[in-house]
């Protein structure tokens, strides 16, 4: 009862003076004030606005609300004279009779009046509905908060995994460069040793000739010191030996005795890069792990995908496919010509092609242009296009080529073995298209884990 009286007292209190209304007046906005309080407020503020809602009053001298005045005077008088049991019953009837359901204020002219209990019950229903909306809104925010926490935790795993793979790739490159460096240094040392042996051999021949010539010179010099008769007896032999030695060809330096520096340093980086190209692999399409369904597992180099029964704990980020077991390429196309090949092996159920960026990722999606997919569908040996029409192939496809001509609005499929045309879908593209891969669960355990691989054209 005290709460009810407090509610009525609040209704009957002036906003300006906080006392029970004296000569209350009602503004067009349905707010009530003591007549004198309102006039003083207007004098102080120098405008005619409502003290509560600030709406401008259309009446400079509003009339006294006699119904409200009677109720306020009655209420104030009972408060002063005490509360007998009879007065309490009358007050209860008064309170129950004059609460308005439209404005929640004491009775206003032209408004319907209902008992307080009925009004409170109705208002609580409305408030409970508002409470339910607030709770639902909070739950949505909590779900987004939960997803963000999952994203934070998964991002840490991605960081460590990606760092590990980057280091592994660079270790391969470092190993290749180290081996290439050692190989080229070894070639340099081999050339130096080979040319050193050649020069040593030439030097040995030179030394032998010098020794032989020195012996001949000594013999001639001794011959010149002999007396006449001995000289004449050995002259011809000495002259023959001297002339024979003199007829030997003059020594020549061997060409190419120096190390071929140009061979070792010329375009060194380019030649190493060319050799490196033979060791590395290029894929025209890279899969985006952030779009992969939790049942799909991607290879470390993001060029192949496999479906498994175990569902990964992945955050439900907006890009992820959570209904269809599919994955998108990491880069989309909005112009030009593009092509790539997909190795499907003997997997019995798959779709591949292109999908528009805004296609549904969380709900039902059929392999049809109506749903933004232009693809080739394979189910247990049968092939259909995106319109559900059967297409003929010479033999079961183990590899498929996808070609996109965005500007002409064409998506084509071929057997890359002999480039046999399978079918072409023509349409008008208005947004970015992404390579698309779907793998259905296979009943045969032998083929359930067959990879779908992208390879260089």
Account of the 3D structure:
This protein has helices at 2-11, 35-45, 66-81, 85-97, 116-224, 228-246, 261-265, 268-277; strands spanning 24-26, 32-34, 99-100, 113-114, 296-298, 304-307, 326-328, 337-343, 349-356, 373-379, 382-384, 399-405, 410-415, 420-426, 433-439, 452-455. The protein is an alpha+beta fold and 457 residues long. It has a seven-stranded antiparallel beta sheet, with no helix packed on it. It is elongated and about 180 Å long.
DSSP strand count: 16
- Counting DSSP H or I runs of 4 or more residues, the number of helices is 8
Low-confidence stretches: 78-110, 445-450
Radius of gyration: 51 Å
Task: Please provide the ordered H/E string of secondary-structure elements.
Answer: HEEHHHEEHHHHEEEEEEEEEEEE
Overall geometry: elongated
Strand content: 15-25%
- Placed side by side, the strands forming the largest sheet appear as 5-6-16-8-12-13-14
Helix percentage: 40-55%
First-residue to last-residue Cα separation: 86 Å
Biggest beta sheet summary: 7 strands, antiparallel
Mean pLDDT across residues: 85
The computed structural class is: alpha+beta
